[in-house]
Design a protein that fits this description.
It contains 13 helices and nine strands. It is of the alpha/beta class. Strands 1, 2, 3, 4, 5, 6, 7, 8 and 9 form a nine-stranded mixed beta sheet that branches. Strand 1, helix 1 and strand 2 form a beta-alpha-beta unit. Helix 4 packs across helix 10. The radius of gyration is 19 Å and the shape is globular.
Amino acid sequence: MPDTRIDVVIPVYRPGKELRLLLRRLETQKLRPQHILLVNTHEELFDESCMEGIRDAQVIHITKEEFDHGGTRHMAAMQMTGEYILFMTQDAVPADDQLTLELCRPFADPNVCAAYARQLPARDCNAIERYTRSFNYGPDSRIQTADDLPGLGIKTYFCSNVCAMYRRSAYEELGGFVRHTIFNEDMIFAARLIQSGRAVAYCAQARVIHSHNYSSIQQFHRNFDLGVSQADHPEVFDCVKSESEGIRMVKQTAGYLVKHARAYLLPKLLVQSAAKYAGYRLGKNYKRLPPKLVYKCSMNRGYWKAAEQSAQQDKQE
């Protein structure tokens, strides 16, 4: 590979021990990044000691109101110079020293312009979430193109900025991430790549440890935001259906629980699935809901505050 200069962008908010471990494992990668940029929201809560011993690392601070899933990442990307930009979240820990090397491999194909990693469950991951990880991030790599839409459906556009690398030239050519979005900036951009004739790689050999034990209420809020993002981008999500994929996951998770003598978790699965679907459907129809209800349903409430402030500024101008 003629150019393997990798820059890493990590949005940070109230970081824990995972960030410290993440940075140290990036430092020891076989293919070490040339630069790491942390974009921290809430300066008072950032512990500078987590960066000790990390070469070529920098932190910039923004306010919570300034943070945007797509806009913040794009702002950081425009400060980078490497041929590849790796976006990660603060709780995604590389499983070994091969992460960046494995993520780079698919780019040997000039048509591949994004590659995302496999997410493995953490030790404290519950049984339902553990299976969800394996459902969404299986052991087999694949290259996703427009030809896969009839078979893969919504998964054709799947990509996760928990750990995803992008070819800078293609990123800039297509204008980067959407600037103001509540969620799904990664899938929206992946869809644009694929719709432009390019490809996205799922790289199962590139692995990060990342999982959440969300409650049913948290699942509701998260899926509400997911529905909002889909409603706001019909050019991507109206062309493919996601409900069928969700139903398939619930059925397979139920079978897994029964097979592994954990049928007692089926009621929890049903409650969580109902919460996810209710949140998703409400999010898809958020424009019909009262603003106060939208705010209460959302996980990313700062998004709505920023949108309200922007609307007020537009009126004043």
